[in-house]
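Subject: sequence -> structure tokens, single chain

Hey, anyone have a minute? Need the predicted structure for the following. Not urgent.
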Amino acid sequence: MVLQPLLGPVAAVIAMQLSYTLGSRSPLHSREAARFMEGLYEARGTPTPALERYAVEAGFEPDGEWGAVLIGGAGEVAPVKLRTIAWRVRVGLQAEYRTVRFMEEAGLTTLLVQRGEAGMDLMDAVRKSFQDARELSAVVSECGSLGELPLVLQLARRRVGEPGLHQAPVADLAGVVEGLPGPGLVAMARRLLAPLMSDGGPALRETLEVYLRHSGNTREACGELFIHRNTLTYRLRKIEEMLRLDLGDGEVRATCLLALKIVAGGS
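Reply:
Had a minute. Here:
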């Protein structure tokens, strides 16, 4: 009875290591699967023929529906704990989905699934294995096309870090920006924000970004910037003069926020 509390964790680690050894010789953890997922993280917009070929070689149906699960740490987490939980989730998903592949990198495991059992909810399937790991972070997302999958993975990756299990939103502003094509749009956004690149500009640019991100809430913006409300008012007036815009206009605020995201993504 004294050894029983010790055998549970030890058995889990042994099983995890056995899984990795066997997985290196199976499609679950293959060179093809890793190449496909690396290509997804590098891709933007319409998938290339090469990416579609990688999907087939990894055992997926390019025209099928996709499920993604990203598992990482929510702070300081022992690598063995992270790998154990990721392994447990993979085993659970294999019981519910006919195609499961994963890629592991430092502090993050990415799993892709297809062809689940009828009526199976991916969030519920992950919850069965993740319910006792609150110090970790898991993000679940789904989409209906290979073209959307790279953006979905990037969105989910931005959400990793919040403790517990979460469903990723369908879209966010950064994802919309990443999907926008054309260097012309980047040039236009940079030209709009160019006056804020001069002396004193970085502080004003940060002020604008924080103010817009908090939807114009002056109290929250001042709290994040550690400035007095009068200082915020002065800076916003200065920004309006330099950009020749009215930040009281909702469309102008949306345009500026989008321009900031485009410039950040294009730099």
